[in-house]
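User: Hey, quick favor. My workstation is busy. Could you predict this chain's structure for me?
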Amino acid sequence: MKNPFQKTIENHPWLKFLGNKYFLVSVFFCVWMLFLDNYSYLDHRVLNNEIDELQDNKAYYQNEIKKDISHIKKLKNPAQIEKYAREKYYMKRENEDIYIIEFEGDSITE
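Assistant: No problem, here it is.
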């Protein structure tokens, strides 16, 4: 008399394939490498996202450095220093009055 489990395996050959020890070891290895290992796929995704974010930050700060360098070059001229001080800090010359007119809805941005 045959074992009932043996009869099921004969009726469904894919069960024999799924019960193969090489298949089971391969599945275990893939699951281990994708999710459980120190160098798993999930960890690599997180690290790649961080690298992309840092590269974007690097590009942004390099552009800001270029802008600041151009502002510094402009501010070496005394006329530009005076213009900057008047616009940014509302400075004035002696015996000079400054009037700031604000319209409704406008605001001074700092």
